[in-house]
């Protein structure tokens, strides 16, 4: 029990995009992953009622204001392994969707952010993450 509680104490939440109704593409706020280790869990929560399609993926960069690119690695989406590709959620249309991705922190550069592409749509959603702090 002590090992489990020690591990849980190091879990930290980080927000990549707070809950909001969005009508345009998202270029999320960068989050510094320097103090994290192990796997990162990213959660997409989409409310029902979107008017078109929504695609969300994770980008990373060496610096906060630097050039961002897709995080590319083998990862887990909804519990199933996905061969090495861009770390992305399954496309969402008009129904509610809650999805999660798990990928190794080492596959990303120091800074990560979520980006979304919409097809002239309105969607209400949030993107959050959970990771383990190195020093807790």
Q: How do the helices and strands line up, and which of them pair or pack?
A:
Elements: H1 2-9, E1 11-22, E2 26-27, E3 31-32, E4 36-46, E5 54-61, E6 69-70, E7 72-77, E8 80-86, E9 97-104, E10 111-118, E11 123-133
Main attributes of the structure:
mainly beta, 136 residues, 1 helix, 5-stranded antiparallel sheet, 6% helix, single chain, 6-stranded antiparallel sheet
Q: How do the helices and strands follow one another from N- to C-terminus?
A: HEEEEEEEEEEE
Count of β-strands: 11
Helix count from the secondary structure assignment: 1
Strand content: over 45%
Radius of gyration: 15 Å
Low-confidence stretches: none
Overall mean pLDDT:
89
Write down the overall geometry.
Answer: globular
How many strands, which pairing sense, and closed or not: the largest β-sheet? 6 strands, antiparallel
Instruction: Give the distance, in angstroms, between the N- and C-terminal Cα atoms.
Output: 18 Å
The level of helicity is: under 10%
Placed side by side, the strands forming the largest sheet appear as 1-11-4-9-7-8
The structural class is mainly beta
